[in-house]
Amino acid sequence: AQSVTQLGSHVSVSEGALVLLRCNYSSSVPPYLFWYVQYPNQGLQLLLKYTTGATLVKGINGFEAEFKKSETSFHLTKPSAHMSDAAEYFCAVSGYAGGTSYGKLTFGQGTILTVHP
Amino acid sequence: SQTIHQWPATLVQPVGSPLSLECTVEGTSNPNLYWYRQAAGRGLQLLFYSVGIGQISSEVPQNLSASRPQDRQFILSSKKLLLSDSGFYLCAWSRSGSTGELFFGEGSRLTVL
Fold it and tell me: Taking CB atoms and an 8 Å limit, are B46 and A104 in contact across chains?
């Protein structure tokens, strides 16, 4: 069984400030981890993903996330926020389930990021 | 390249009326297909998923049903809509045997009055 907890349903930052969105997961198998972004009235778009290998993952729009197994975390960061980063962000986890099967994604509840000028 | 389309984008329906939302994927074969719903403040709820034609798994009991008449077509239906069916519906697909990464459609906003 897998679960995802996103700490903070709303995060507010000033333009140019550091963005930090927190995600902790629980998984009984080695996890695959994802961050998605959703703009109002649109579908979800993949920001970045961790499957295996390097634990620091870089994604689109200047975002990156670090997989920390000991902390069961996959926090999303961006050094300098831009107004266009305002959106809802979802963390998700899946994992190898045997044979050619991989588990369905389990999503966190989402974090709404507000960027102030 | 692969694309996913769903329609209609916006729908306003009276209580008790039927529903049909359609989703198609292009550029891939034998995808896994999914229907999610987003209600205000409730995150993403997986409604149905399908690993092949005619194979539908329901995640939660509800007033909705899904069908997969063709490999790359996924339809969400209801015979009689309830107020609680209002929400933002998202279709998604993933590659069989992949890491589970999902590719989402543009979404359909359903308002039941």
Answer: yes
Distance between CA atoms of residues A79 and B6, nearest Å? 35
Q: Which amino acid would we find at residue A112?
A: I
Residues of A in contact with B103 (CB under 8 A): 46
Structure confidence by residue, pLDDT tens digits, A43-96: 999 999 999 889 999 999 999 999 999 999 999 999 999 999 999 999 999 876
Q: Note whether A109 contacts B43, CB cutoff 8 Å.
A: yes
- Structural contact between residues A33 and A53, judged by C-beta atoms closer than 8 angstroms: no
* Angstroms from A36 CA to nearest CA on chain B: 10
Beta carbons of B106 and A42 less than 8 Å apart: yes
Type of residue numbered B46: L
**Residue A60 phi, psi (nearest 5):** -80, 165
Tell which B residues from 70 to 99 touch A, by Cβ distance under 8 Å. 88, 90, 92, 96-99
* Least confident piece of the model among A3-12, A29-38, A101-110: A101-110
Where are the strands (E) in chain A, listed by range? 2-7, 10-14, 19-27, 31-38, 44-50, 56-58, 64-68, 73-78, 87-98, 101-102, 106-107, 111-116
Q: Which among B49, B111, B107, B58 is positioned nearest to B85, based on CA atoms?
A: B111
Whether residue B101 and residue A107 make contact (CB cut-off 8 A), yes or no, is no
